[in-house]
Amino acid sequence: QVQLVESGGGLVQTGGSLRLSCAASGRTFSSYYMGWFRQAPGKEREFVAALEWSGGSTYYTDSVKGRFTISRDNARNTVYLQMNGLKPEDTAVYYCATTTMRLRLRDDRYYGYWGQGTQVTVSS
What we know:
- The chain is 0% helix and 50% strand.
- It is mainly β.
- Strand 7 (68-73) and strand 8 form a beta hairpin.
- The N and C termini lie far apart (40 Å).
């Protein structure tokens, strides 16, 4: 059974940094893409970043390019989201998820497994 467990959220001031972790278990993820999504209060869940587990290709939404970095540790089966230069508009619950659909990385409907989410709050 696939299990994704996020950690690393918290409260930070504008301009600060956080690193989110997503520990994955239950199968071999070499053919998967790992994605990070976020959902702010009253808003729809939105794509943040994704990574091809085997090749390491990365994908970002425009609003986080240059500030966020997605990476992986194969030995730990863990994906990270390093978030620098945080802004109040980054405040949301952040989720990691998995998919095999390379052409649908930005669409949460194509992700089959999800973590429980971790809260990120950026104060102004």
